[in-house]
Sequence to fold (353 residues):
Amino acid sequence: MDIKIIKNPAPSQKPDEESLGFGLTYTDHMFIMDFNKTQGWHDARIVPFGPLALHPAAVVLHYGAEVFEGLKAYRGADGTVRMFRPVDNIRRMNASAERLCLPLLDEKDAMQALEEFVRLEQDFVPHKDGTSLYIRPFMIATEPNLGLHGINEASFIIIASPSGSYYKEGIAPVSIMIETEDVRAVKGGTGYAKCGGNYAASTRAGERAEKLGFSQVLWLDGVERRYIEEVGSMNVMFKISGRIVTPDLIGTVLPGITRRSIIELLRDENYEVEERRISVDEIIEALENGELEEAFGCGTAAVVSPIGKLVFNGREYVINNNEIGSLTGHLYETLTGIQWGRLEDKKGWTYRV
Fold:
């Protein structure tokens, strides 16, 4: 694929690595590639970062036809810039695009776009421990048409943001409220797709939980309101009597890349991992009889987020004395070690730019 590059004539000053937030500053360029039914994907280009021109009737603005991904580029101690499992992100994006009737990407073209874009912006990959360059590929339906039908025009775009450490004061357990009113997804819907509508619909419950002093909500299924699904925007795992239990992928849970990586690491270390339906009753019973040893969320942003407290129907349950479990800490150190190049990547997960 031929990618046209137009350099930004006014490059920005690199942000202070001591005060990086998340998604607050952006690199100097963005990748754009357009699609229509006649030409397919075409006009791949890297151009100066800036506003997009969209017709007021663009399908994305009215019917939410968009999908996105999130991955990171890390600068190792040796200065090498690495992306973590980028091909998996491309494949998941195609799965999301198929669900929303958006055009699919050629894997090789998408990888070329990611690599050339990150290579051009590699000076924005921060050096400070725990920091990274957050990469946001996304696809939007751009056709100006208020009729609800198949999508004929779209754009694939990549932007990036230097980001600080998720844990500014060190990894620490969080308090989670089990949500009993709103639901995140139902089978046959878009729960497994990484699309904005899923996140917009979850905001109300998240705000309610935050006002009550909780970090996130733990979602239950949308039919019986009984089975565990996700925690906030992350997958969730429980260590019960030495076994690792996590909700299975039945179309309502995002197939997390961090989730998949952790399951592979656990099985390599001979842990028994069960991917199955988990009722909230089972979790509460395990908490009450002392069998629930650890719980954590996992995802790109935090990698691993230990859960110290669960609240259900007004009752608070403390997990592992509200301390980081040994397995949770081990998984965090192992994954981040691979991502930043401190540990050998025996899995071939990292992609050197």
The chain has seven helices and 18 strands. The first helix runs from residue 59 to 63.
